[in-house]
Amino acid sequence: MPHALTPHPELLTSQPTSNLSSDEESHLEELLAHKLRGIPNHHIPAITLRDILHRTPKTKLANIPPDINLEWFLRNRSTIDKHNNTPLKDDQAQHPSITRAIFFYRLSTTHQFQRYHDTTRWNLYIATALLTQHTLTKHGTTPASPSNTDTRIQKTEPPISRASARFLTRYLAAVLEQHRPFHHPSNSFTARDSFIRLWSSSVHDLFAIRRSWARKAMQRCAKRVAREWEVEFERARAEMGSRGYWRRVGRFEGSVVPGRVGCGVLDLGLEREGGMVVVVMWVCWMGRRMSCSLR
């Protein structure tokens, strides 16, 4: 059985702040700050002791699944700390709820769905490039440079495995769900939970780029690709018009790929294999330049 989750009720008392001594209030404020440390700014509202003691609406986090919401998180932060904010692929060693919390609260710079972190952006670039190469090669074509002069990319390479393609596609779908517009709220966590389950049972993992030379190389590549993708976006806007662009491309800008536009999310039907075609088709169309630039 997975490890049990141990409650920590100290912060969850209904005692009003007026009944607390200054020392007690100071202690609880320090405890709250300690339990919320490591969560990126703006990922959750600024939670105060008053919010906790009076259970204000701010404590109901719309971007976190209800079963691991703030009250659960405060009760189990010490257990999360024991795992060093690192998700494990073993539900005997780590309760699945702990794994999900590390992803959803963005406690790991590698295992999350928000492109705020360099490591996440690099994973998105690599996933896009690999899926593009896989999709085009599978259909008998190879990614080609716009000028068609780069002979390095004319060699046909074997596609990645179907399991690898499925893993990467689910990852991109999870990122899209994470970046849905704030003006279009949704309580769906289907794509992200689907990926976490797949990640937990898969031999595949996200890339952790730690060596300084590799990080510098990815930073240079990311800058180059961002400029080149913007050219592609401008071309797509001109060819499709504003409405067509938003429907077919705009939702991916600012999430899977860099851009100025906020993103939406398609109903990808991730429980059906065919639902992944939407992401793969877009990757095939938009990712050619990424494959060229990563070489």
Protein described:
- The structure is a single chain.
- It is built from ten helices and no strands.
- The protein has 295 residues and is mainly α.
- The chain starts with 21 loop residues before the first helix and ends with a helix.
What characteristics describe this protein?
295 residues; single chain; mainly alpha; 49% helix
Give a short synopsis of this structure.
Helix content is 49%, strand content 0%.
Task: Please tally the helical runs, counting DSSP H or I stretches of 4 or more residues.
Answer: 10
Provide the low-confidence segments as ranges: 144-154, 262-295
Radius of gyration: 22 Å
The coarse silhouette is globular
In N-to-C order, the SSE pattern is HHHHHHHHHH
Distance from first to last alpha carbon: 45 Å
Structural class: mainly alpha
Number of strands: 0
- Helical fraction equals 40-55%
Strand content is under 5%
Oligomer: single chain
Averaging pLDDT over every residue, what do you get?
A: 77
Largest sheet: none
